[in-house]
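Reviewers of the previous submission asked for a worked example of the structure-prediction workflow described in the proposal, so we include one complete record here. The input consisted solely of the amino acid sequence. No template or homolog information was supplied to the procedure at any stage.
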Amino acid sequence: MKLMGLDVGSKTVGIAVSDAFGWTSQGIEIIPIDEENAVFGLDRVKELVIEHGIQGFVVGLPKNMNNSLGPRAEASKAYADKLTKLFNLPVDFEDERLTTVEAERMLVEQADVSRKKRKKVIDKLAASLILQNYLDRHGKLTQG
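From that input alone, the workflow returned the following structure tokens.
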């Protein structure tokens, strides 16, 4: 089952897709959006869903450290509702606390990428980490 992982922000949505077996995740794109003006990039998401044969979504849920949901988590849930209405495909959530921090650390430590270049890829990497964490967790649950 091919899944699409999304790291939803107010200005961009990082996109990742899984392989057909649901084992690995690969970041593919960052879609510019404008949440304030209700521009959500759903036309591009639709193109990617068709191109990659997506059968479900995993949306990062940015919980607060105390496990509560704040405004960004509510915005991610609202984006997920739009996906559900538009595509009629299953949507699941993955706790994304510290995912962007982890992505930033990986880019600094492993790739030694400049701050300017990091900004251009961080959301895509964060989406990939969200999806990979979901795939790893889901695989462990079904193997147990």
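The mean pLDDT is 87. We consider this example representative of the routine output the project will generate in years two and three.
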